Amino acid sequence: MSRSADESSPARRRTSPEASPFRAQPSAVGGPTARNRTTITFYLTEALRNRARSVYRATSFAERDSSWSEMLTKALLAEVERREIAHNDGESFTVTDEPLTPGRPIGF
């Protein structure tokens, strides 16, 4: 049995966003508004940045992202929620504004 290119493409085989157990919404933690947003800097590979930008361009309308920042906020929130579920029975960890230790973790 032969499949068409569309049916066998990785995009067709992936589950829909609705099937994902994590449907992070920035509004759950107060979306980025002019009065409560902050700027952060982090490093990622050019390949990952380009891949993410391509995903944003292709899906921002369907996912109702108002901006690139909103998509990144949703992605970060999904990972935060996943770790809370995996490591803290789904509860939020204690929130603190202490600075993170700079550099790579020791022992990894």
Task: Please supply descriptive tags for the structure shown above.
single chain; 108 residues; mainly alpha; 0% strand; globular; disordered N terminus
Commentary on this structure:
- This protein has 108 residues and is mainly alpha-helical.
- The protein has a domain at 20-87.
- The protein contains four helices and no strands.
- The longest helix has 20 residues, at 68-87.
- The protein is globular and about 35 Å long.
- The termini are far apart.
- Mean pLDDT is 78; it is low at 1-22.
SSE topology:
Layout: H1 5-8, H2 10-13, H3 46-63, H4 68-87
Report the average pLDDT across residues. Answer: 78
Strand content: under 5%
What is the gyration radius calculated from CA atoms?
A: 17 Å
Unreliable runs: 1-22
Calculate the terminal CA-CA distance, rounded to whole Å: 47 Å
What is the helix content? 40-55%
Helix-strand string: HHHH
Structural class: mainly alpha
Which word captures the global form?
A: globular
The total count of strands amounts to: 0
Helix segment tally: 4
Largest sheet: none
